[in-house]
Design a protein that fits this description.
This protein has a single domain, classed as Neuraminidase (6 Propeller). Helix content is 2%, strand content 37%. The chain has one helix at residues 295-301; strands at 45-46, 53-56, 60-66, 81-90, 93-100, 128-136, 142-152, 155-160, 165-170, 187-191, 211-216, 223-227, 235-239, 249-256, 278-284, 310-315, 320-324, 334-339, 348-354, 364-369, 375-379, 389-393, 399-405, 411-416, 422-427, 432-437.
Length: 442
């Protein structure tokens, strides 16, 4: 996920070998009170005459890609568009790598070719995976779109890397069972420059579990991983070779230094207090390929902190934010902030935000940071009639609406263009990718 070039490049503060990889175009901005403008938010939402997306005055949207559109590789755009990242390809082009959260029973848009897994009897590729969209950076004209990963299950979220690739994560732990040929629950890497289907290599050292999202610390190369379960953990992967995840590494789970904690704050529990930073330690995990899907259970038994459905995660400068969709006393969602230390031995975690009412936010999911330094959070409500918003959250933890989706589906994959002028976001189903332009830097 990306942020503007005029507020520090993704790797500018590190001075490390990762600096040479900044061509990915991924920018990061800290949540900084100095970035705030007077007033809260961008103003009242204006009704959309098309009945699709209400936005503040001065903002407009356009549809970039839709379910069923013909792609340039002969396939069609699949459904269930979810997590997404934006990359600067150079030569005036940008790329969006987009997840599709498809199950084996879903339509995959006719994909054939390289695939991680196939239906055992028919050898038809499983429909999950990614598509890549290439746009003119100035006009946002779609120059091409194609399948870039196939044969996976339920690719929910993921994250960009400093070296210009997308980590796409399976939120499914199906086992090979005579209907499918492979075990699932892995992370895969998709270079943003790929012009077709990539070789599907599961990064097994990053663990087998219900993956949600990923974020890379450019200063260390450490990858932080969320898990979408009601009793999830927060993981970190320490690669053997920074920038080369396929070389393997170590997987750890976050624990609080002062003892085990249930951070969900359900039923009057107080495992997390807003504004209270707590020291962190990391628990080494073994048997990370977890054939019994018990990685989180073993981690919790060893003292790891428990979170309520970890989802979107975003790496800023020296701090990362992650959503817990159903956390909090109201069950409407939390956002935690982790501040890694240079040594890795003095990390601190605090509860940055906890929703107390649906007017703040209702089931936060994917998130990123806007050019003004505020969080941008996608809602994913679980109600019969939904009214999902894009929500902004200020550095002081005040929530406000940015957009209201009038269609009965979730918002996902929010990410900014490298120049910070455009927010790209997905409508889950029927799948659409839209571009929202406006005074994001105001």
């Amino acid at each position: 996920m990306t942020l503007p070039t005029d507020r520090r490049r993704f790797l500018a503060a590190t001075g490390s070998a990762f600096a040479a990889l900044a061509a990915s175009g991924c920018m990061r901005t800290p949540l900084n009170a100095a970035a705030m403008r007077p007033g809260l938010g961008f103003g009242a939402l204006q009704p959309d005459p098309a009945g699709i997306l209400d936005l503040p005055q001065g903002f407009t949207y356009r549809v970039i890609s839709s379910l069923g559109d013909a792609m340039h590789d002969g396939f069609t755009v699949p459904d269930r568009a979810d997590g997404m990242g934006c990359f600067d390809l150079g030569d005036g082009r940008i790329a969006l790598v987009r997840n599709h959260e498809l199950m084996p029973t879903n339509d995959g848009g006719g994909v054939v070719g390289k695939a991680f897994d196939t239906q055992a009897r028919s050898l038809v590729p499983l429909p999950g995976g990614t598509t890549t969209l290439v746009l003119d950076a100035a006009t946002l004209e779609l120059q091409g779109q194609h399948r870039s990963l196939a044969g996976t299950i339920r690719n929910c979220a993921g994250g960009t890397t400093p070296w210009g690739s997308w980590l796409t994560c399976e939120e499914n732990v199906a086992r090979a069972d005579g209907k499918i040929n492979q075990d699932h629950g892995w992370v895969f890497e998709v270079p943003a420059t790929a012009t077709g289907l990539v070789d599907p290599v599961p990064l097994k050292a990053m663990g087998r579990f219900n993956h949600e999202a990923a974020a890379v610390d450019p200063a260390t190369g450490i990858v932080y991983l969320t898990e979408d379960m009601k009793d999830s953990l927060l993981y970190r992967f320490i690669p053997r070779t920074p920038g080369r995840l396929a070389d393997g590494g170590r997987l750890q789970a976050l624990a609080l230094a002062d003892g085990p904690a249930d951070t969900r704050n359900w039923d009057g529990r107080t495992g997390a207090v807003r504004g209270q930073a707590r020291a962190v330690r990391w628990i080494e995990l073994d048997d990370v390929e977890s054939p019994n899907d018990d990685l989180r259970l073993r981690g919790a038994a060893a003292g790891a902190a428990i979170f309520a459905r970890g989802e979107g995660i975003h790496m800023g400068e020296g701090e990362l934010f992650f959503c817990c969709t159903s956390g909090g006393a109201a069950g409407l969602g939390q956002i935690f902030r982790l501040r890694p230390s240079a040594s890795g031995n003095a990390d601190r975690l605090d509860l940055f935000f906890e929703s107390e009412g649906k007017d703040q936010f209702d089931y936060g999911d994917n998130l990123t940071v806007g050019p003004n330094g505020h969080l941008v959070v996608c809602e994913d409500q679980y109600t019969e009639t939904v009214a999902n918003h894009l929500r902004g959250i200020t550095p002081e933890g005040e929530a406000y609406p940015i957009a209201l989706l009038r269609q009965q589906t979730e918002l996902a994959g929010a990410c900014f263009s490298p120049d910070g002028r455009t927010l790209f976001v997905n409508f889950y189903s029927p799948a659409r990718t839209i571009a929202i332009t406006g005074p994001w830097m105001a």
